[in-house]
Amino acid sequence: MTRHTILLTGGLGYIGSHTAVALVEAGYQVVILDNLSNSERSVFDALGTLVGPNHLTFIEGDVTDAATLERVFSDHSFFGVVHFAALKSVAESEAQPLAYLETNIGGLLTLLRAMEQAEVFNLVFSSSATVYGDQEIFPIPETAERSAVNTYGFTKLSSEQMLERVGSNDDRWSFGVLRYFNPIGAHESAAIGERPNGIPANLLPYIDRVATGSLPELVVYGDDYPTPDGTGVRDYIHVMDLAEGHVRSLDAIEATGEGHTVNIGTGQGYSVLEVIRAYEAVSGIKIPYRAVQGTLLFI
Ligand SMILES: O=c1ccn([C@@H]2O[C@H](COP(=O)(O)OP(=O)(O)O[C@H]3O[C@H](CO)[C@@H](O)[C@H](O)[C@H]3O)[C@@H](O)[C@H]2O)c(=O)[nH]1
């Protein structure tokens, strides 16, 4: 069987590395381009241990660099690209909006140009439920109105709109736009997982640090939201299920020749307190926490 080859930009990150495993297991050949800005080379070694080295290639490089992309596309014949490479901290995006525009929008634009040049027209794009802004309908349908509530959200929303523009007059393109809810968990081997640099911003890696004693307590942002226990409710999805979503997206593009835009979540929300209690029940470790009013994330 000839395997299709897929380029994974940002493929050594949290979601990318899990998707690499799912793709190789589904029969794809995977080439990873990653600048190691929020990952390490050891993740690639771990992937090799998990799925064997034969179907994986790693190239260290930046998706905003046209010359790098030109070389990658001339060295390989790709069926499609899964584009993960982007900055993802909401707080940082407010502090450094230009860096976010340059990487998230500039990177996508550079990638699209390189793809067109190489005549590779299948792209699965990492979007986010953040494109729904502050909407409170639950579960939220893909047809809901979109808005940007911060610079990070702006980069995701405008990337979606860029893809719509590019695809609208050119049938050669197929875009799988995947709107992620909150990915958590790790591959069952624990050989790969979520390993943010510095102090984690997201709930689960933060709780991990509290559980292992490297941070003293969790600060729960907000206890008077209009939710059953007052703490924030999110739709958490296992990262391997999310990874599988990328395989399905590529398979659907191949089967139909068409793109799609889909939410990837479970449709079930859990509060911060429910997450803490579940973590404590499974690990047997007490998670000290303190609730503060409002959200600190966006200050
Ligand atoms: O130290 C913490 C961290 C988080 N939370 C709460 O935990 C929940 C989950 O927070 P987090 O893991 O930071 O995710 P979100 O705020 O939902 O943001 C995620 O979901 C967005 C889409 O909805 C994406 O755009 C972001 O990249 C992604 O981080 C929320 O209620 C937070 O207020 C805390 O109480 N304390």
Automatic annotation (TrEMBL):
Q: InterPro entries in the record, alphabetically?
A: Epimerase_deHydtase (IPR001509), NAD(P)-bd_dom_sf (IPR036291), UDP_G4E (IPR005886)
Q: Name one GO biological process term.
A: galactose metabolic process
Q: What class of enzyme is it?
A: isomerase
Q: Name the cofactor(s).
A: NAD(+)
Q: Which UniProt keywords apply?
A: Carbohydrate metabolism, Galactose metabolism, Isomerase, NAD
EC number(s)? 5.1.3.2
Q: Which GO terms describe its cellular component?
A: cytosol
Is this entry keyworded NAD?
yes
What catalytic reaction does the record list? UDP-alpha-D-glucose = UDP-alpha-D-galactose
The keyword Transport belongs to this UniProt entry's keyword annotation: no
Matching SUPFAM superfamilies: NAD(P)-binding Rossmann-fold domains
NAD-dependent epimerase/dehydratase domain sequence ranges? 6-265
Pathway listed for it is:
Carbohydrate metabolism; galactose metabolism
Q: Name one GO molecular function term.
A: UDP-glucose 4-epimerase activity
- PANTHER family in UniProt: UDP-GLUCOSE 4-EPIMERASE (PTHR43725:SF47)
Family to which the UniProt record says this protein belongs:
Belongs to the NAD(P)-dependent epimerase/dehydratase family.
- Name of the protein in question: UDP-glucose 4-epimerase
Species of provenance: Nereida ignava
Q: Gene that codes for this?
A: galE
